[in-house]
Amino acid sequence: MPKNVLFILNKLRENGFEAYIVGGSVRDKLMGIEPHDYDITTSARPEGIKKVFQAYKTVLVGEDFGTVGILLDNTLYEVTTFRIDGAYINNRKPEKVIFSKNLTEDLKRRDFTINAMAMDGDGNLYDPFNGQDDIKNKIIRAVGDPNERIREDALRMMRAIRFAGRFGFFIEEELFDALSLNASLLKKIAPERIFDEFSKMITGENPSHYLLLMEETGILDVIFPELKRTVGFVQFSPFHDKTLFDHLICVMDNVKPDLSLRLAGLFHDISKVDTLSIGEDGRGHFYGHEVLGANKVEEILKRYRLPNKTIEKVKILILDHMKVHAEMTDKALRRQIKRVGRDNVLDLYDLLIADCMCTRADRDASFIINRKNRVKELLDEKEMKTEKFLEINGNDIKSLGFSEGKIIGRILKDLEEMVLDDPEKNKKTYLIDYIDKNYR
């Protein structure tokens, strides 16, 4: 254990109190994972914790709920009194807590057995609900009655799926049934809290595993009904050997773990369900699905109160994911860079590559990979590095005798188009001469 954690445990014990690390830190240590943080629990009441550490800076993190923060070496360590939760309100939080002197009573209120273990400073394990066995057997099991645990705090459903996906564990049968039975309770949970759990899932490894669990338990239909419609949806295309849902989660798996990019992968074809038409050849067509999809994704992400910057990037990627023609000139690529932005264009190509790879097992994405490499080269051109790249501006045009108005804007737009086609022409003398010959 880190020295400061041991210091807190030992100092509490020296003053006659029990003290343990608890929850995720114990679970991770038993699994050989370095804990990110350590939760500490103790028999000391908040006033007792503050007295023991009176020589140190303490912070009132949640004294009414038994938590005191202790600042050591610029790091805040939270120490919480053993407690029993009172009645839960709104399927989320206890109305009050009752302080306890019994470690087992404290562990009993926790969500899953793998999180209901404690360890003292000597490394002794306290495991009244056999969490260590469940780790060995790769099982997520509720502490006590699964339905009761879920109804106390509906967000535990998302946590069960997150832990199962993260560790590759199975959800125990009774808990699985409780998730399915109580999925609708998630409608009562703040959207931000749901998305906080969801974002941790889809920016981890193999995010499709979480989505499949959500679909199996019925949670997907509650939090993303628009996505549920893609399950089992046949695309009627010789270029696709997967259902739409399987294609979407495949694309999500095959892009880097960036939140915006993973969201774009998951939702890029969301509106194929709304735009399907069958041609005379029996093939499915989805005209305009990228435009409709970008608008639908904006609605979904606003519902979960994501930052506008994230929403805008996801929309940009979805709107351009169909612009992957067999041949694209440098002029077309430069326009694409300007359209989506230099900060987004390489992510767009990662999406395009994954989209191609997830259509059919034998699909070759090398032409898109080669195009991405060409885009990287074009990004080094000075014209691609700034929004205003012309070697001439509106004041230069006015100095040539043109009055202010639409004519100046039209000239600048024409020059930009010309220079995107041929950057060699982006020289002030050439541009002035061009204006003189073409706009007098």
UniProtKB/TrEMBL annotation:
Recorded family membership: Belongs to the tRNA nucleotidyltransferase/poly(A) polymerase family.
Domain spans labelled Poly A polymerase head: 19-141
Pfam families with a match to the protein in the record: PolyA_pol (PF01743), PolyA_pol_RNAbd (PF12627), tRNA_NucTran2_2 (PF13735)
Tree of life domain: Bacteria
Cofactor needs: Mg(2+)
Protein name: CCA tRNA nucleotidyltransferase
Domain CCA-adding enzyme C-terminal intervals: 295-434
Keyword Magnesium (UniProt): yes
Keyword set, alphabetical order: Magnesium, Metal-binding, Nucleotide-binding, Nucleotidyltransferase, RNA-binding, Transferase, tRNA processing
tRNA nucleotidyltransferase/poly(A) polymerase RNA and SrmB- binding domain: residues covered: 168-228
Matches recorded under InterPro entries: Bact_CCA-adding_enz_type3_sf, CCA-adding_enz_C, HD/PDEase_dom, NT_sf, PolA_pol_head_dom, PolyA_RNA-bd
EC number: 2.7.7.72
Organism: Peptoniphilus genitalis
